[in-house]
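Entry 14. Ran structure prediction on the chain below.
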Amino acid sequence: MLELARAIDPTRAGNLESRYAAWAREAPQAAALATAVATAFPAFASMVDARPSAFVELAREGWRAPRTRSGFEATMRARAGKLDDGDAVCAALRLTLQSEKLRIATRELLPRSLHGADVDTTAQEIADLAEASIEVALAEAMAYARARWGPPLTEEGAPSTFVVLGMGKLGGRELNAGSDIDLIYFYDTDEGSAVPPDGGEPLTLHDYWSRVARRLTANLDTATAEGVAWRVDLRLRPEGSRGPIANSLPAAERYYETFGRLWERAALVRARPVAGDLELGRAVLEELTPFVYARHVDPLLASEIIKLAERARAELSDDPALDLKLGPGGIRDAELFVQSLQLIWGGKETRVRATGTLDVLRRLRGRGLVTDREGRDVADAYVLFRRLEHRIQWATGLQTHSLPTDPAERRRLARSLGYEESADLDLEVERARKKVSVRLASLLPKGVAKPAEPSRFAEVMQKLDEGDAASAQQALQRAFGAAGTAELCRDVEQMSRRPDDLLGSITRERFPELGPSFLDALIDAADPEQAARYFRTWLGRLSAPGVYVRPLGEDVRALRRLVAAFGASALIGTAIAERPELCDSVVFTHRVPDRESARQDVARELSTAEVRSASNDEPDSFVGALRRAKAKVTVEVALADLAGEIGTREATLTLSALADATLEHATRFALGAAEEVRGLAVIAVGKLGGNEIGYGSDLDVLFVFDASLAPDNTDSHAYFAKRAQRVIRLLSTAHAEGPGYELDTRLRPSGSHGLLVTSLEAFARYHGIDLPGQAPDETIPAAQQSGAPWERQALIRARFAAGDVALGDAFLRIAHVAAYERGAPPKADLHRLRMRMEHELGREKPGRHDLKVGHGGLSDIEFAVQYLQMEAGRDVRVRTTDTPLAIKMLAALGLLRADLAETFDEGYRFLRRLEQRIRVVHGSSSSLLDEQAEGLLPLARRMGLRDTPRNTAIEDLVARYRDVTERVRRAYVEVVG
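Output, structure tokens:
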């Protein structure tokens, strides 16, 4: 930290080191922290003098662990004591804010190597801090009002409720260090009243909630001895400053329907319930949706919104050239680019209705409404401006958005962000502004003046018209620059050889803009060469390319979406190249996949296929239907995953539901059961058991049978073994419709040496458990009794997946006894097995990491958590196959320290997400992260990392991986010893 301070401003750092020298002997880390923070952010120097204990506490507790809204609220309430003391509540809010803002400023200042965080993370924490403040301030105001004027009741006698909507940056969870908070207050109805306890005159609900609103506002923005909590801006409410401080829902509806203006629509795009009755808040936004999002697409909206921005720039900004917020190409312009597209398309594309700027950009890109390059340009510029805005506000303690004019301050600002000199920063800012200005201007309709970007592909199209392949490839190389590899140029040129192909002569004549649009999308793709290769392969598989070329020529968004998908994901590219009709899922689908839709897709494919009976030895149509459903759902999940429409957990849940449905139908088919299967159950274990399978995962399963339900006069074991083998063949056999699943049954009793199917009784005997009221059947083959600790541990993630439901339930009752009611294995045995996996399976070496079984990998987390589940297994609350849920429950029960739980939870989510990203981006089933491998840059970007002056996205990815796995390993060691 001292080195960082000296790098930012050696003179100031030296002075502060001398100033804190005596203190440093007693608390060296706290003094170093204070030196670094006060060097970069001079406004904090007064806090060092007034409250050095805050730095001591921060150095001791650390700044890395992210806080939550509920945690902030609990701290404020505990510090305030009872809510009937308004002064104590106000003091608690302000003192908590001071401490937490110091921590957040520290996270922003420090690099990742010192557990720093980028501005998108810290802005969310500031927003959570504001929400907690509003909730506590509202609780005090409501307690105050209730004590004086009684409870507010509607005409029906039900409690009347009140909600606070966060607007602007608070609504988008992008609050900055010196922000006002933009709020609007609503209550449910005007029909009702409050009767004071002393029998005084009843208050109307409007009067009651207006008084609550005024006290809430005062709790936040009145200056006290501890300062101001938040400056509150209420000008976005109906009628602005002239309107009532709080409005009922019916009054708000009338206002917006009659008088609502365009700027109010734009403001409500970012509205979000933040305190009070959140259900009422959601109802308010639902009622106002028709006002905000028009059903028809109106591109002219963009020009109207840009006019409003120009007017605000002229009226509000003293020096636009220095103003990061209102200056040309600044924060406001980046937000307007996003909000304009939301307003234009939000009526038709409901998935773009979100409040966060970066989140909306991802969604717009996912729906093909912006290209990858447009999204990157705006996102990178926005993040740069927000970093600068925060640094300036931390440094000055003022709500300013202007770059400093003093050379020393400018240089200190630049160096705090990792730039060598302020000139480097100035150049970066200028480039970013130009990019945002061009992107915003591109939304203007034709005929409106806007910065023109010269066509890069006129020469290419001319050479294609001339039919000179070599000249066309050379023109492509010139147009694409460094991205114009020989392979890309060859693939693109080949798409012009057939007249009806994408760039063929007939297509160029019918759709003259298609070729340039395609090339423009290609150069914007995450991997242009990969995108071109998959596009050529896909079109080459089509006997009549015009079937898809025509709709692509008529819908540029669909074209962009397809090119972006090919460039971003080898998994998607390979799937569509092998099954061209899957393109429909990429280009024309508007559905976000989930578990139910996955199950429906399997059933739909089977219902439309000519599925023959199970007696047929070649059930080709049945297997084909399963494969088509698998390919379709997998591609849709991958697309939604990449677009940010679903998270990693939603993706694994959907893919697991797809696998379950496939197993269920295969089991029915194998047993010839029209509906319910009797006698055979498929038990999911491993990743499938935890509903955590990814793209290309094997399915870990056990087959269990009930001997009494085998046909008469048959060997029950042989009968059900044959049916289980048939299930395996149905799922894994090669088929023209695409790959199926590999089933792994090695977790069955006695492993790969054991029997493929196990009777319920044999399974119970294997684990030394007597089935009540049932004598052993000596005719049933029994595995050698064992129930080793690792086998009991594997049963923690056992769940019913398919087949006989009652049999599955009976199996799980036995499994739970074995897994949970016999205590945990010795720690030394558990650790020995874990290390053996790491050395024999992981085979890590410097720069090559195994996410699953490597040092600090997923297995560390699973072993530690499963050990604790087994140790406390008699408490049914810890019995879950879901690892994140188990972590949460163990922490809630006091069985896992909060800091260790946080490390495991964060590590699990990061590693699972990285594992999924590797598979969807590179199309492999590998769990390896190789620091020297090609393709790390798109992987890092898909993990949400960006290049910064200090580090590249790849360096940040590797550093993040090492940090996470080191902390996971330390936490694992603390649990297992």
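Residues 301-441 form a domain with the Four Helix Bundle (Hemerythrin (Met), subunit A) fold (CATH 1.20.120.330). Will compare against last week's run tomorrow.
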